[in-house]
Prior knowledge:
Layout: H1 5-11, H2 16-26, H3 32-45, E1 51-54, E2 57-62, E3 67-72, E4 78-83
Antiparallel strand pairs: 1-2, 2-3, 3-4
Amino acid sequence: MNIDKSKILDNICYTELVYERINKKLKTNNSKPEIEKKLLEILKQTSKENFEKKGKNFYATNIENNIIVTINSNTFRIITVDRIVKK
């Protein structure tokens, strides 16, 4: 499947609850604008090959920052951000 990274970046959005979830999962205390800026930077630097669609979500894996960003493929809403678990 061909994933349009630019469409994802242009339409990305957030819910009020996701900011708290992101801070909790990443063990940070960033403001809403800080979270949005940082995630946009991370997603921009994530290569298109590291965007994957599974079911109704996109998963953007960024090895350099050790995170996976989960994005709803219909609404382009950030769902969560998880640390990559080293095996």
